[in-house]
Design a protein that fits this description.
Blueprint lengths: L2 H26 L5 H19 L12 H27 L2 H8 L2 H12 L8 H16 L8 H23 L5 H23 L6 H19 L1
Length: 224
């Protein structure tokens, strides 16, 4: 199996994981804050990753100061995108929020061309134009507060594209598990202050079940 086919399979696994995560977030309900949902998502991810990485010769602290710096950049950008996406999920239909977030490959292509000097193929240009036009159909610009959730979804795709581009840059420096562990741990800790300020809500049994599923699906998506 060549690398292109392997990459395609992992991309499908990632998309499935993120789609299932979006569904479980929607099922949790709006009485639990976005920050608390993100805290649980990443708490489950940290536990899963530490468990699966046991006994493996993986340097979870990072291989160099340079890679650690770019992993911090990735964490900040990725967390910002995740907060915007969860907000979007809470306010829009799930299909619309997922569609907007899936614009991230559009921005990966742009960022990879600008910063990683990857070649932009000629046949990709009309595809990018169609994708952007499709996003406008979902957002339906009205220049009012009603479009804020859609705008948040669009911005989440930009930040996700930046995060994925950094993952691509770090691919020869760190193990995938290390990249995901750093992001999950950073996001978990980063969500504690706003979660406590907004008010921690003790989840019901059903909500806790969906919170755990959110963490599992998100981690599968991240690793993919």
């Amino acid at each position: 199996m060549n690398d292109r086919l392997k990459g395609t399979i992992w991309m499908c696994i990632s998309a499935l994981g993120m789609a299932l995560m979006g569904a479980t977030v929607k099922f949790i309900g709006s009485d639990i804050s976005t920050f608390e949902k993100l805290f649980f998502r990443n708490l489950i991810g940290v536990v899963m990753l530490l468990f699966t990485m046991r006994g493996q010769n993986i340097n979870i602290l990072g291989s160099s100061n340079r890679s650690r710096l770019f992993m911090v950049y990735r964490c900040v950008i990725g967390l910002t995108g995740a907060v915007l996406y969860f907000y979007c999920i809470n306010k829009l239909y799930l299909a619309d929020s997922a569609l907007l977030n899936k614009l991230s490959p559009f921005f990966v292509t742009i960022f990879a061309t600008l910063f990683l000097k990857e070649k932009l193929e000629r046949h990709q240009i009309p595809i990018l134009i169609v994708v952007l036009f499709g996003a406008l159909l979902v957002i339906k610009p009205k220049f009012s507060f009603e479009m804020l959730p859609a705008l948040a979804g669009f911005l989440s795709a930009i930040f996700a594209g930046g995060a994925y581009t950094l993952v691509r840059y770090l691919r020869t420096m760190e193990e995938p598990s290390t990249l995901v562990l750093w992001f999950s741990a950073f996001s978990m800790v980063g969500m504690i202050p706003p979660m406590l300020i907004q008010g921690f809500v003790i989840p019901s049994g059903v909500q806790l079940f969906y919170l755990i599923l959110t963490g599992i699906f998100a981690t599968v998506g991240q690793i993919g």
